Amino acid sequence: MAIAITLLIIEIGVPHVTGDESLSAEIADLWPSYGAYILSFVIIGIYWANHHSFLELFRRTDHTFLMLNVIFLMTIAFLPFPTAVLGEYLTEEAQRADAVTFYSIGLLLPAIAWFLVWLYARWRGLLVEGLDPAYVRLATFQFLISVALYTAAVAVSFVEPWAALAVCVGLTLLYLLPPRRPVFTAGADDR
To answer: CA 9, CA 58: separation in Å to the nearest integer?
Structure first.
């Protein structure tokens, strides 16, 4: 995740000034790239922070669980590419919808991968002992809602790219809130 975050800034190219152009103006013209960078940096940072607490919910792993986690990490490593596309084409009206659609898909992929890791762990009994069933259902619902909202952002991006981007920003702001602490059934070890 640290490498993906680093790649985000590398994707913002140094402007090349020729003739009468002002370096300050060229740097300022990169504002869509700065915005995309900040949004993706925060998203990856949130996934990184939540990944630490997320992994504490599992008592063991197996090969499939680890491979699903690798797929999740692959989707995170992919994010610098759609971030760069968004930064490059956000201000071009003819390309905006495609750029936002691609970016929304880039955000949808880690949400799907995260949800698959969770579903698999639930199905295979990899969750820690004593997790309250209501907590597990709520977490499942929250992860499903994330996938649904990012899917909605993708769908909306075809007709109203700014609204789709607002959904992505809104979800990011929501995810800045700390995740719910795990709830254990009475008598289970409190972690």
So the answer is: 33
At residue 8, the 3 state secondary structure works out as helix
pLDDT at 101: 97
pLDDT tens per residue, range 135-172: 999 999 999 999 999 999 999 999 999 999 999 999 99
DSSP 78: H
**Residue 19, by phi and psi: left (phi above 0), alpha (psi -120 to 50) or beta?**
left
User: Which of helix, strand or coil describes residue 81?
Assistant: helix
β-partners of residue 131 are 184
Please state the domain extents for the chain: 2-175
What's the confidence (pLDDT) of residue 121? Answer: 95
Burial of residue 122, with CB atoms counted within 10 A of its CB: 0-12 exposed, 13-18 middle, 19 or more buried: middle
Q: Look up residue 167 and give its two tokens.
A: 């959904």
Global pTM reads: 0.86
CA distance 88 to 188: 52
Amino acid 4: pLDDT: 83
Beta bridge partners of 58: 127
105/72 Cα distance (integer angstroms): 14
Ranges of the chain whose pLDDT falls below 50: 190-191
CA 148, 150, 155, 161: dihedral to nearest 10 degrees? 150
